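## Example record

The block below lists the input lines for one assembly entry, exactly as stored, with component labels intact.
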Amino acid sequence: MAHRRIDHGFLQQRQDLDVPRNLLQERDVSTPLPAFLTACAERMAGRTPKDHSPEERRTPRSARGERGEANRRPPFLPFVSVAVRIRPNLSQEPVALWAKSSPSSQRVCCHRGFLLEEYEFSRVFGPEDDNRTVFDQIQGPTLTASVFQGVNETLFAYGQTGSGKTHTIFGSRSEPGLLELFVRRFFDAAPAKAALFAGCYEVLGDSLTDLVDSRRFLAEGSLHHEDIVHDELFAKTQRCSYQIVRVRTAEMCLSLLNNARWNRTSGVSSFNEDSSRSHAIVHLFVQNPGSDGCASIGTLTLVDLAGTEKEHENPSEKGRKCARLLNTSLSSLNRLLRKLQTGSLGESERRQSVLNKCLWEYLRPGCGIALVFCASPLLQHRAATLSTLAMATDSKLIQSQRKSQYVNMPSPRQSARAQASSLSPAAAVAPAGWQLPCSQLSNRADSADSSGRDAQASSRYGTNGRAGILAPGKKQQSGRPV
Ligand SMILES: Nc1ncnc2c1ncn2[C@@H]1O[C@H](COP(=O)(O)OP(=O)(O)OP(=O)(O)O)[C@@H](O)[C@H]1O
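Predicted structure tokens for the full assembly:
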């Protein structure tokens, strides 16, 4: 059976889509802070426009931090964007790094032999802080609310090998990680009509591997073929795809993602017996229909980067080869982050590596970015730690000008007409949960479907390295290098 490629709302912001303009609406939610905070305080105090003084009423609403009817959404708090986490010292070795937090400042102290350096960050977590504390302090619930309002929020765990990145994102047997805490929060906070989708893949060098294994769930009947679609990306020399699965319960989502975690490539690094030897990326997509005929489309992306390590310090030849690949992709990502810091991010950075390509949609202007820099306190790791702290310090310059993304919802009559229409057959294969964005984009998606259209597809999607979304039951294709 010929499969059809469908697209969905998550990709609608791209310039290269020939989607009618009115399908895509971006709303800037980055109100200038003073006006924004005034508006927040007023709303929290239950003050309505009627309570304003005549003078306030003469001031334009925009200057008072208020918005038009269409943009009236719950306000955001300014999020913590850069945090440093110091892992516990599990050995008896001397330390060179410790946290010095007080209600007024959050600092990291680093002993450099002849002098002591102090660095200040939004949040500093010491060895005694667990993942729950990290989740609360980085304002996990607020980030979740932001995703429900259609913002792409991305959280990185960054640092040298063995510094606690995987522990932070995926947790351990005894402690849930940020992923589990976010998933539970998503399901607790989800409005009845919202639909949640999850995907998880790893990137190693030029290859992307889907980590989600849905076969067990399909066999059990807890998942149906129509609950799965495939997002395609052009890696350097091949087309890769990963599954995006509709998840209906927190338990199912966690089970799927925990399995994905164990499918990840691991090995031995210079300082970790069970080191992640790839970058793991988890996406939680939320489609949240509103009452005004629009649905917000937001994504939470959690990135557990592989740790940096000096190639020659890895104990095996295979490990050294792997470290080289990882360091190369981390250098490209570092360059991208540096551009973000200076506000000079350009399209060329996207093409520098497959990792950059995968993360581009979730890092570009309009997305919220939070970074948790993990560091080892040990004296022997001081050089690597100082370079992590330098990156963390510079990353304080990154500004998140968050934007919400919306798509128009088709009316029930439009959906029925689209499904019946022979002009939009993709609508007929779009699973119920995807009916909104998929069916609206069906004409475009369909035209990229036929075989022998690689060149056309690459010219359409190649500029951001994505090939689109494949319908349920698709098979991965080999494609021309882009
Ligand atoms: N905050 C923490 N509390 C308790 N244990 C921790 C903490 N951070 C790290 N560990 C432990 O240290 C070890 C290494 O941590 P982890 O695997 O998370 O590091 P990593 O930065 O992901 O390393 P790599 O980059 O090599 O994958 C694990 O056994 C982990 O359980």
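Residues 1-49, 60-77, 422-482 have pLDDT under 50 and may be disordered. The radius of gyration is 23 Å.
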